[in-house]
Write a structure and sequence with these properties.
The protein has about 160 residues and is an alpha+beta fold. The protein has one domain (about 40-160): Muramoyl-pentapeptide Carboxypeptidase, domain 1, CATH 1.10.101. About 40% of the residues lie in helices and about 15% in strands. It has five helices and four strands; from the N terminus they run αββααααββ. The chain has a four-stranded antiparallel sheet with strand order 1-2-3-4. β3 (about 140-145) and β4 (about 155-160) form a beta hairpin. The longest helix is centred in the first third of the chain and has 24 residues, at about 1-25. The relative contact order is 0.17.
């Protein structure tokens, strides 16, 4: 009797873990990490690396002060459906160039951009919530240019945050 009493809670835990794993494998996601986001991305910056090469990534005017307190990275910002502007355009450009997504590079974060971002998040095996934030930024590659001309040749690479 005593052994079966101990097995019931253990069996419930195992079944709960199996159900969570099955849900994630079926395309579900964990609760969003965006519960307490930082500043919204309101611009895109052409960043110069120590190597003299360039990334064009989402950024925020407000992120500098926030990031000094939290992480030391001024490019930690958030984008979600409904956003618009140059930061969204940089995100869309990255998904087209580095992940082959068919998304218009129009600067509007609509349902097509959200679905494309979710596909990329799923492929990178991170939380799939359709929100661009620090975890997503860290996992993604961005176009990496040899010149300031965004039409120049590029390769896709993780952003090097030791920037000038």
């Amino acid at each position: 009797m005593r052994d079966s009493t101990r097995l019931k809670p253990m069996l419930r835990s195992v079944l709960a873990a199996a159900a969570l794993t099955a849900g994630l494998l079926a395309g579900g996601s964990l609760p969003s990490a965006s519960a307490a986001p930082g500043p919204a991305c309101d611009r895109a910056e052409l960043l110069t690396t120590e190597l003299g090469t360039y990334y064009y990534i989402p950024a925020s005017r407000a992120a500098r002060d926030w990031a000094d307190e939290v992480k030391g990275d001024r490019y930690r910002c958030w984008l979600r459906q409904g956003a618009s502007g140059p930061a969204v355009r940089a995100l869309q450009d990255m998904m087209v160039k580095c992940y082959g997504k068919s998304v218009p590079v129009d600067g509007v974060f609509g349902s097509v951009t959200r679905q494309a971002l979710m596909d990329v998040q799923r492929a990178q095996r991170i939380v799939v919530d359709g929100v661009y934030g620090p975890q997503t930024a860290d996992a993604l590659s961005f176009p990496y240019y040899d010149k300031k001309d965004l039409g120049s040749s590029y390769v896709c690479s993780h952003v090097i945050y030791q920037l000038h």
